[in-house]
Write a structure and sequence with these properties.
CATH superfamily of the largest domain: SGNH hydrolase
Helix content: 10-25%
Largest sheet: 11 strands, mixed
CATH topology of the largest domain: Rossmann fold
Radius of gyration: 29 Å
CATH architecture of the largest domain: 3-Layer(aba) Sandwich
Strand content: 25-35%
Oligomer: single chain
Amino acid sequence: MSELRLPRLLSDGAVLQRRKSIHVWGWDEAGAKISVKLVDGNDEALSQATGECNEKGRFDVYLPARESGGPYKLVISDEKEKVVVNDVMIGIVWFCTGQSNMELPIIRVKDKYPEMLNVEPNDRIRTFKIMEETCYKGEYEEHHTGDWKSVSQDTIMNFSATGYFFAKNLQKITGQTVGFINASLGGSNIWSWMSREMLEGYDELLSLADKYADDKFVESQIKKNIEQGNAWRGSLYQNDEGIKNHWEADEYISRILAEDGEGASQNADDEKNLWNEFSIPNFFEGTELDGFIGSVWFARKFDLPKELAGKSARLFLGTMVDNDIVFVNGVKVGDTGYQYPPRKYDIPEGLTREKDNTIVIRLGVETGKGRFTPDKDYKFFNEDAEVKLDGTWKYRIGAKCEQIPETDFISWKPTGLYNAMTAPCHNYPIDGVLWYQGESNIEDFEYEDLTRRQVEGYRKAWGDESIPFIGVQLPNFVIDQLPRVDDWGKFRLIQNKLLDIENTGLVVTLGLGEDNDLHPVTKEPIGERAALWASHLKYCYNGEYMGPAAISATGVIGKNGKPVISVTLDHADEVSVLNAGKGTEIKDMYIVDDNGVKHQAKVTICENTEDGHASFEDGSEKESEQIAGNAKIRKKYTLELECDECAGSASKVQWCCRNTYQGGLITNETGIPMSPFELPITERM
């Protein structure tokens, strides 16, 4: 019997890279003769080639490169059997990889993009999703999971949101069929996606990889994770007075929340006194629950208008730290096991009433950092009405315990994800790499060197030194940085160094983040900006593809006759100030003096045209272009910075070098903000 077998990447629905040799590989009996044909819709062979399996049963056959087209068939046969790969398209293929913000699926952003629920089928956008898998012993030849899916209402919710919007906009610009391979995992480090060769010299990381190559050790760690987690949660559950006494019950909570004097007995009134007030949303820090670990029950009553009472509805409860179970009128409506997902629960028809509904949340706090995240939606609603649920709630402690034992995240260790998920892709020709990662490496300032090694290593592994590599810079973010103090501003400056490598791009995302959420839902602009970079680097796109870029900072005499710092900009047509939710006043430009003290600078955006020099204060209205005869004159811009406190001692300029921004963002015709920067000041006045 024949043993002819192909890799998962070469399966029905595959998108093959145009203008590169079509690599067909697989496995069969040692010495088997292999024939490969690319066949059109009329079963006519467009190209064909033959090969032979080596002593290990591996064959590699190459068909000539082709322009875009399809659908085609790949027909692979030996002397006994043939395998047909159907619905094959030739287009452009990108490898999309990183951690959670690359992995985040459309289902997590569907409330931001409700049109995705009724998305039109698009057979020319396809993805190959590789499920989480690690190996520390060496590189896999073949994936154990994955198949090709095209866009439809049945599939779209599982597409990477960033990957989909990237492919959608890339298709819009190029007109090509776009396939993207999704190899991503939340929480993963950069070294998880690097080979041993790329990590040469990082002995501590390689030793860690060696440690996890021991199957018995890994099995023991997995067992330990499960046993410790189950024991902690089980003990908390068993000791929880709320579980024992059914604090979720509608009748009980109604009695507890009844107005004074409405209690049925003295015992009931005594029980009511055990429930204290807590304002939601709020941090536990600074309250009576500061540092608390265990379970806490929160409850309140609420009324509903006729448009909501008894109707199907949705319940939004922001995000919580760490896990929750939610009951409405005594019925469980949802639960979430960890802090990051937004709490969005469906309420069935017939559950609610107009008056005195009860809602109960059992919140499990694992590390003493409990919270109901501020500036999130806490509401009960449908398309006809909504009721806010923020405000005063009652709470009572169910049980106290020690901090949950630390989990060993085995998949995040060096080389593991690369070996199992990335390495098998290197046989599959691609046009470029889109990389969205960094949240797990904020404190690791060797990231610049690791990034260079990764870029060079990926290009070597794919056998193409010109493959574009596009990174996504981390957005604004604040909330989860304590107790440690993560410097996202400094890290973005490190990410800027990616552009020092030839044929790379960097997507600026300031203004697209959420200060209170590690997983912002605004993903479409990220895909759009990545597609602009890809089109510039690879597809001869002539339009603007990035925001303004600061080139140099120099001391000069300004228009007002006073010494100023002039910042020269590139990509600086139609410069303006973008209101990204915090106004249009420029507050994030600082001049650093010789003592390292930062001083906020007054910023003037200056226009420079062939007709002379003009300037305007940030945020004011100006025409961005002038017409002289039939010629269109594009204005160029600089920034003039003033700071009386540091006159004569200014050493460098910083822009948006903190975890988040405070005011308006400087942008150009694209609407993409200027990237954070730090520049030395030359020729000081």
